């Protein structure tokens, strides 16, 4: 048909051919990236593997042939995203998406418990000044810390956080995707941000001196 | 000196009583990333920041995280380890080859 197929000689029809088939080249080039992408969002290696497999299957069914172009990668990521959302949708039907355990107030010991300044920061435990946070964005170690911290969030809270903050999806869309109320979403985001901020402060911004 | 300290304290108590408490300010800081807050609420937050550097930092840091997260999606590749295992890769390739052969 096209000149690509004329290059892969007919001898390739045997499975033990020296040249890699399209599926193998796909998995080699994009497999790791897609798997990491899915694992961050699903937290379960088996589910992430399934999602990646389904993504490649969709590509095959769509009659795509391997080209190795960057457009191909974004196309695959688009398919994978939808597979992940399908999974969220399914799991929101099976279990309540709001993780109630997380709402036991772990930050509460940082606030004055009573008196005139009740619910104010206990000064020694309040947020620290972060020095030049923008510079961290270029640091690989920072991103590792970031992902480690977001991994500590309860699974559902992390899913909501990733949808909203990392993928940049609007609140209303997330609510209809997961069938939760907007108020519920806000509470989850608030808790996620609070926990992530604290974790980054403990493990990154508060550690500047030691790192140098 | 004493007078200044006393005025400062009174000012802080007055602001404290006329704005919301820190826990509530933190909730608003997060909410402001979801929808615009009313002018009145924003004003009260500003006023609160005058006496509370901790909430001001928190608000700034949340905004920073909000901006930083959009970079996070581009950082997936630099994650250490954790790619497909050799077994997983093999499973996927096998599965794809079977599907591919059926299509032919």
Question: Helix-strand pattern of chain A, N to C?
Answer: HHHHHHHHH
Oligomer: heterodimer
Radius of gyration of chain B: 26 Å
> What is the helical fraction of chain B, as a range of percent?
over 70%
Helix segment count of chain A?
9
Number of helices of chain B: 5
Describe this structure in words.
The complex is a heterodimer of chains A (212) and B (104). Chain A is an all-alpha fold and 212 residues long. Chain A has helices at 3-7, 22-42, 45-61, 70-94, 140-152, 155-166, 171-178, 182-203, 208-211. Chain A contains nine helices and no strands. Chain B is mostly helical and 104 residues long. Chain B is 75% helix and 0% strand. In chain B, helix 1 (2-18) packs antiparallel against helix 3 and helix 2 (22-31) runs parallel beside helix 4. Chain B is rod-shaped, with a radius of gyration of 26 Å. Chain B starts with a helix and ends with a helix. At the A-B interface, helix 2, helix 3, helix 5 and helix 8 of A face helix 2, helix 4 and helix 5 of B.
Break the fold down into its secondary structure elements and pairings.
The complex is a heterodimer of chains A (212) and B (104).
Chain A: H1 3-7, H2 22-42, H3 45-61, H4 70-94, H5 140-152, H6 155-166, H7 171-178, H8 182-203, H9 208-211
Chain B: H1 2-18, H2 22-31, H3 39-51, H4 53-72, H5 86-103
């Amino acid at each position: 048909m096209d000149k690509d197929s004329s290059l892969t000689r007919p001898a390739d029809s045997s499975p033990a051919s020296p040249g890699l088939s399209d599926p193998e080249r796909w998995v080699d080039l994009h497999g790791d990236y897609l798997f990491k992408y899915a694992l961050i969002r699903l937290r379960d290696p088996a589910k992430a593997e399934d999602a990646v497999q389904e993504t490649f299957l969709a590509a095959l069914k769509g009659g795509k042939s391997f080209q190795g172009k960057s457009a191909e990668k974004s196309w695959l990521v688009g398919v994978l995203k939808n597979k992940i959302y399908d999974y969220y949708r399914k799991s929101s039907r099976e279990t309540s998406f709001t993780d109630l355990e997380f709402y036991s107030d772990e930050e509460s010991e940082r606030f004055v418990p009573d008196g005139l300044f009740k619910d104010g920061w206990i000064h020694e435990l309040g947020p620290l000044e972060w020095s030049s946070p923008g510079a961290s964005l270029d640091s690989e170690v920072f991103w590792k810390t970031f992902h480690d911290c977001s991994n500590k969030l309860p699974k559902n809270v992390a899913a909501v956080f990733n949808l909203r903050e990392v993928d940049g999806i609007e609140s209303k869309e997330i609510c209809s995707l997961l069938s939760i109320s907007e108020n519920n979403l806000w509470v989850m985001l608030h808790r996620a941000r609070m926990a992530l901020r604290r974790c980054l402060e403990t493990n990154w911004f508060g550690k500047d001196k030691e790192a140098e | 000196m004493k007078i200044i300290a006393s005025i400062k304290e009174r000012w802080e108590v007055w602001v404290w009583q006329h704005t919301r408490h820190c826990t509530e300010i933190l909730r608003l800081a997060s909410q402001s990333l979801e929808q615009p807050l009313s002018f009145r609420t924003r004003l009260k937050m500003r006023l609160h920041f005058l006496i509370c550097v901790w909430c001001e930092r928190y608000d700034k840091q949340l905004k920073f995280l909000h901006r930083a997260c959009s970079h996070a999606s581009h950082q997936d590749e630099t994650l250490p380890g954790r790619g497909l295992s050799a077994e997983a890769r093999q499973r996927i390739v096998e599965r794809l080859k079977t599907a591919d052969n059926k299509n032919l």
